[in-house]
Design brief:
The structure is a single chain. The protein is an alpha+beta fold. It has 3 domains: 70 residues, wza like fold; 75 residues, Ubiquitin-like (UB roll) (Roll); 71 residues, Outer membrane lipoprotein wza domain like (Outer membrane lipoprotein wza fold like), CATH 3.10.560. The chain contains 5 helices and 15 strands. It has a 5-stranded mixed β-sheet with strand order 7-6-10-8-9, covered by helices on one side. It has a 5-stranded mixed β-sheet with strand order 12-11-15-13-14, with helices on one face. Strands 2-1-5 form a 3-stranded antiparallel β-sheet, covered by helices on one side. Strand 11 and strand 12 form a beta hairpin. Helix 1 packs antiparallel against helix 5. The termini are close together.
């Protein structure tokens, strides 16, 4: 029984810090990271390699190899297996990260070419966009998509975009802007809808009918925090997505935000708390058994 309990405790101890940032040799290699290869015996191996946005690195002799999400130890083992094809005895070599650690991020406007930029840890989203594209318009919406399950959508002026951000590499920053050549009879729908874009204005339209034209809400949408932005005055009207009392006017921008707490982030915090409680529970049991 004690062995079973010890196993469970060890399992939870390993998985409790689900979202903890690794450090030292435990870091996971990410898009944009740069590594130094050095060997005292084989000078042709001495080089600097860089993981592109897909996590692929061009390694001497080996060619293109995916090192994405590997630890330094696993990356060293991967390169050793490759070099084994070219040497009778694998030469000694060192693999170390080049500092400051940089991350590859794509940034651009919707339906336009995306630029790949290198960012340092803690750089704000606004700083990345200013250097990679240009400062977004005041009525624009910024979407951040991460390969690790995060999908953030906020207006361009949101405070979240000006604070230090924890990059993990491979993120995409997309600026969604209402149509610049707006006709008098159009409406723009941005944010968490399945079809972002510009739609024809029709008399007696409601927020609900327009969202239906945009093919509905995404799973991350907050249906109770829809904002209608008047293009003529800049007035912002908060509403539910099925509110029939708000009169839609030509030129309006309808923004559907994401939930304030995404399911991915919420589940991580909830899981971490639950595992901590279970861990404590089993520790108490084990102590009493002794």
């Amino acid at each position: 029984m004690r062995q079973i309990i010890s196993f469970i405790i060890g399992f939870f101890a390993v998985w409790s810090p689900v979202y903890a940032a690794p450090s030292g040799d435990e870091i996971s290699l990410a898009a944009g990271n740069v590594l130094s290869i050095s060997s005292d015996s084989e000078s042709q191996l001495n080089s600097t390699i860089e993981l592109d946005w897909s996590g692929i690195a061009s390694v001497p002799l080996c060619g293109s190899i995916s090192l994405l999400n590997l630890s330094l130890q696993d990356a060293h083992a991967t390169l050793s297996r490759c070099l084994n094809k070219f040497y009778r005895k694998i030469p000694d070599f060192r693999l170390s990260p080049v500092t400051p650690r940089l991350f590859a991020v794509k940034a651009g406007r919707r339906n336009e070419k995306m630029n790949i930029v290198k960012v340092a840890q803690g750089t704000s989203v606004n700083s990345v966009l200013a250097s990679a594209v240009s400062a977004p318009e005041s009525n624009a919406v910024i979407r951040l998509i991460s390969p690790f399950g995060l999908d953030l959508v906020h207006p361009a002026g949101a405070a979240d975009w000006s604070v230090p951000f924890r990059w993990r590499g491979g993120e995409s920053l997309i600026i969604e802007t209402p149509a610049t050549s707006k006709s008098a009879l159009s409406i723009d729908v941005l944010g968490e809808v399945k079809k972002v874009g510009r739609f024809e204005f029709k008399a007696s339209q409601s927020i609900l009918s327009i969202i239906r034209e945009a093919q509905g809400l995404t799973s991350a949408a907050d249906p109770e925090a829809v904002t209608v932005i008047r293009s003529t005055s800049g007035q912002k009207i908060k509403s539910d997505w099925d509110d029939q009392n708000i009169r839609i006017e030509p030129g309006d921008v309808i923004f559907v935000p994401a939930k304030s707490e995404h399911g991915f982030e919420k589940s991580i915090r909830w899981t971490g708390s639950l595992l901590a409680v279970i861990n404590t529970f089993f520790l108490v049991i084990l102590t009493r058994k002794r």
